[in-house]
Sequence to fold (212 residues):
Amino acid sequence: MSASNSFSRLKLSFLGGAREVGRSCFFISYILINIILDAGAIKNIKRFNSLPSFSPKIDKNKKYLVLISHFHFDHTGSLPVLINYTPGNYRVISKMPTKLLYYKNFKDFLLLFSNNLVILEDLEISMELFENIHDHENIQNLYLKIYFINSGHVFGSSMIEIENNNMKLIYTGDYNNSESFFYSNHIFKIQKIDFLLIECTMNSLNFMQKKI
Fold:
């Protein structure tokens, strides 16, 4: 398959998180593969307009890879709704810390705030679909290779690399390349990117020096 054919077969849709803070969710279709990158929500999850627009893209008869970059609510807040109330065949993949912190974070949220859309049972069911992956471990299928790469943002956070022989897409999620507890002596070795999907809540060339 030529590079041009690879590009033409890849389709990217923004279900949430475009020109807004919260509900990060991006949909990629490539030949027979359907990928959902993150499934976030805006904090006021009592309303459906705080969730990504799943229904136009999700087909109950198709299979979906749901790749979660990290546990923060704006990247996972709609995951129980997607799995329990949007018919489809889902396989959720993240690193182990993301799975555990997602559960604790969401459970605390449900205890603190009354909620009309999600109950604890929805959260428990979503946990059953998680599969764990390690840094640079390959999720390989017939058409694509998928890797999770340390993004240095929080414990377990990842950038997600999707590639075949002719193209490469990187989804950053939230990332940090400054020295920190989560990011030390690590160099991003990512080259020849064809598509770069960047999480960009804020951006500046100049930041005040951090002091404790």
Remarks:
- The CA atoms of residues 92 and 129 lie 6 Å apart.
- The chain has a mean pLDDT of 83.
